Give the backbone structure.
Amino acid sequence: MNDKLYVGRPNIGSREAFLARVNDIYDRRWLSNDGPYVLEFEATMSRLLGVKHCVAMCNATVGLEIAIRALGLTGEVILPSFTFIATAHALQWQQITPVFCDIDPLTHNIDPSKVEALITPRTTAILGVHLWGRACNVEALQKIADRHGLKLLFDAAHAFACSDNGRMIGGFGDAEVFSFHATKFINTLEGGIVSTNNDDLALRLRQMKNFGFTGYDQVESIGTNGKMNEVSAAMGLTNLESLDEFIAINRAHYHRYRERLADLPGLTVMPYDETWKCNFQYIVVDLDSEIAGISRDELVRRLHEQGVIARRYFFPGCHRMEPYLTLNPEAGGNLPETEKLVQRLFCLPTGSGVSVADLERVCDLIRGLVK
Ligand code: T4K
């Protein structure tokens, strides 16, 4: 298994630093419930993102669910279909209808010009996704939200250490939700944070992730268990010590992929705007199969045969997965750009688990498959 190359292979920092922290956890016997490492992780995140509050969670899906609840969302919420299924599930799980909006084919993010037509009296929010770490058109979405009295939430699962122009992602809208899952650029094994500049919202998030407790034996509202544990925070703090190194590796891999695959007909490695801060976490390839002489799925299949586990993120789009397909089988009719893109894109392995030699092998394989 280990000789295979996976998209999503974790970046891991110093073993010694992590184990030293785990030793501390043993000594302290403080394992969860706002332990010292979780508090340090939250404070570090607030500083890095330039945001007032970062509330650590057990994962981003639960973080989204809690943020949605803490913001009082109901009815319908507008979001892209071109995202990981968790974005839609976090709404549907709470009986809120996800209303899928088409994307901008250049940015792959929700297209603000298509949002207003989807607003109904039941709409309570827009949920943007900063896909691949590239910021949504935050300004346009905020204007629409303000005009219609809607909340604005961002799924920033991919966007840690990324910026929109000069501002770090983390302080936009009412709140933003980051993932630190194993496959993410910085991981806490499993984990996430919700970031916000709103004091009241931060307090509600903190209470909701801890069963609604407001003090010993005192529960004032419904809550769940969304807490991050100490080992996760220890992993996060350790990995953050290698943040610059991980970005440098990702950036170098990205440039090498762009260089080696530049001349292939019908194939483009998606560009990042390097005037913005960027984690280069995903190497996203757009394939025009007619020009390339091979279909996307055949190319991915042939790579898998050679042990390169490329991924068709985010195929086939949430609207074609259940329960959304059954609830609205016609949704695809309003999502022409999404429908096109899900047939064309795939992701290649990168990160600190991929060596330069691995990367050259992946490029050689692709060069041999595309005419
Ligand atoms: N919103 C967005 C936009 C997201 O992308 C995600 C998560 C979320 C919300 C929710 O965040 P969390 O609740 O997870 O914090 C994976 C991840 O499980 C998922 O977290 C991530 N997005 C998504 C993009 O990728 P799958 O279904 O592709 O997982 P899986 O098991 O196929 O793993 C992916 C690859 O990673 C495998 O090829 C092997 C490799 N891998 C994985 C793990 C866990 C490793 O090499 N080592 C590992 O420990 O969803």
Remarks:
- The mean pLDDT is 97.
- Residues 6-10, 59-61, 83-84, 86-87, 129, 155, 157-158, 179, 181-183, 192, 309, 313 surround T4K (CB under 6 Å).
- The first helix runs from residue 15 to 28.
- DSSP finds 13 helices and 16 strands in the chain.
